[in-house]
Amino acid sequence: MSTYDAADGTDRPATAPTTADPPGQGHSARRQTDGEFSAFYRSHIRPLVAFLINHGAGV
């Protein structure tokens, strides 16, 4: 018989505490980061999907 408790396992996702920016601070940096990520995503998603489909992944 095992005394293993799944709730005590380490396979649960780790959650980091969220820290909100104080009002009026950091919003422009966040917008810039979001814009940069959006541009990166748009420029890389099609080639990535094409690569994966070409290697057997389903749509």
Written overview of the protein:
The protein is an all-alpha fold and 59 residues long. 47% of the residues lie in helices and 0% in strands. It has one helix at 27-54. It is rod-shaped, with a radius of gyration of 20 Å. The model has no long low-confidence stretch (mean pLDDT 77).
SSE layout:
Layout: H1 27-54
Number of strands: 0
Number of helices: 1
Spatial extent as radius of gyration: 20 Å
Largest sheet: none
How helical, in percent, are the residues? 40-55%
The portion of residues forming beta strands comes to: under 5%
**What structural class results from the helix and strand content?**
mainly alpha
**What would the principal axes of the Cα set say about the shape?**
rod-shaped
Mean pLDDT: 77
The unreliable regions are none
N- and C-termini, Cα separation: 44 Å
**Pattern of helices and strands:** H
